[in-house]
Amino acid sequence: MNPQENPENLPQPSSQNPIETQPLLYAGLIREITIIHQQFSTRANQALKSLNLNFSQLSLLSHLMFLRTPASITDLAEQMDLLQPAVTKMVQHLSEQGWIELQPDPQDARRKYIVLNDQGRMTFQQAQMLLFPLLKEGFAGIEHLEASSMLGQLQHVRKNLAGR
C-alpha cells in the first residue's frame, strides 16, 4: 500500500490478529465480562454479608487458600494486580476476623507473611457454599462438558493476563 492510499498512516489490520478481523466479537466479550463481573460481585457481596466478608476479601482468601505458602502483602498485591494499600486494608480486616495470621520473616523482621489459618479455610468454604446458588443460577442450562471447557478457556485468559 502506498502512502496515498493511507494518507493518515493508520495501522492496517493484520489478517493474523483475530481482534482486528473480528472486532465485534471481542467487543461483545468485553461487554459480557464487565456485565457478568458487576452482576456477580454485587450479588456475591450481598450473600457474603452474613460472614462479614466481601467479594474482594474472598478473592484474597482464595489466593491464600491455593497458594499453600506464606505470602507478603507485596506478593499478594502483585498476584492480585492491586495496589498495596488495598491489600493492606483487606489483610487488616481478615486479621481482625481471625482468619489469617501475620508471621515475621525470620531474615527480615520488618517483612510479614500472611498465612491462612484453619478458621480462614473454614470461612472460605462457607463462602463458597453461600455462592453456590448464585453459580447454579448463572450456569443454568450449561452442560458439564461446556462448563469444563469454559473453565479451561478462562484459566487460559487469566494466565495470559498474569504473564504480562
TrEMBL record:
Protein name from the UniProt record: HTH marR-type domain-containing protein
InterPro entries xref list: HTH_MarR-typ (IPR000835), MarR/SlyA-like (IPR039422), WH-like_DNA-bd_sf (IPR036388), WH_DNA-bd_sf (IPR036390)
The HTH marR-type domain, residue ranges: 26-159
Organism: Deinococcus roseus
PANTHER family: HTH-TYPE TRANSCRIPTIONAL REPRESSOR YETL, TRANSCRIPTIONAL REGULATOR, MARR FAMILY
Gene3D superfamilies: Winged helix-like DNA-binding domain superfamily/Winged helix DNA-binding domain
Cross-referenced SMART domains: HTH_MARR
